[in-house]
Amino acid sequence: MARDGEKIIMHCHGGAYVTRTAHPEDLTAGNVKGFVRFCKPAISRAISIEYRISRSAPWPASSPFPAALIDGLSGYHYLTKVLGFKPENVVISGDSAGGNLALALTRYLRDNPEAGLGLPGGLLLVSPWCDLVGTYFDKPSVGAHISSAKNHASSCDFLAGDFYARHSTVRHGLRSLLGNITTQEARKNAYINPSSLDLDPEFVAKMFTGFPPAYIVYGDAEVLVDEIRTLYDRMVSSMGSEKVVKDEVADAIHDFTAFDFWEPDYSKAHKRIAAWLSSLK
After folding, report:
1. For 8-279, CATH number?
2. pLDDT tens-digit series, residues 158-174
3. Residue 190 C-beta-side C-alpha neighbours within 13 Å
């Protein structure tokens, strides 16, 4: 049960929606362990949601969108309605695909106030995957840095250089998550593709209005750098720069805050995250 005034992190693990778990020995659990290690006394406990992962051929198809979103919502309901944490004392976090899920969950909570669950007090995004369909890959003329994903040095980042190759884990994750949703539909769906270049500009201008304060940490050597920068720009446009922190770490790889061997960046980033968490009212 929640202690009086206690804050907690609710984490959504990464894994392209088709792999990884919430288990404390999972590769992505290094994020949660780092949060708890460095964030005391502001936050001393965290939970990781064991949401359903998606499947598609060659396995039997199961749990497409919005299965993971429903499970994330169930976890948030459990924290706030069963364990007694006040919504403003919950920070929703997520890494990679889990960052995508954290964004979708926060969007649902904002869009559906009649659910009576309230908005979290903060949103912590680690290398969030926010252009699942890959709209950047077929529009190379957009922006000065848009080619970084194609020119990405696969020898540095553990994400494969053929990030959107037909048989990659990421491409399988997209197919599995979408289920019966077409790629064209997903390109215009903010729950699935919040950094999509195909979203309506009028919608984009206000798409994050009403979101809680956010912290985005990622490496400038990772394949997702362009879409994360776009996410930050869109959040600032809707929320104001005072409510969004961008922590872009030079030469760091995807999800580096999960790896305690990635020093000194690992400890330095977690200390900055801890300072931000302590600043939340």
Report:
1. 3.40.50.1820
2. 675 556 566 678 888 99
3. 19
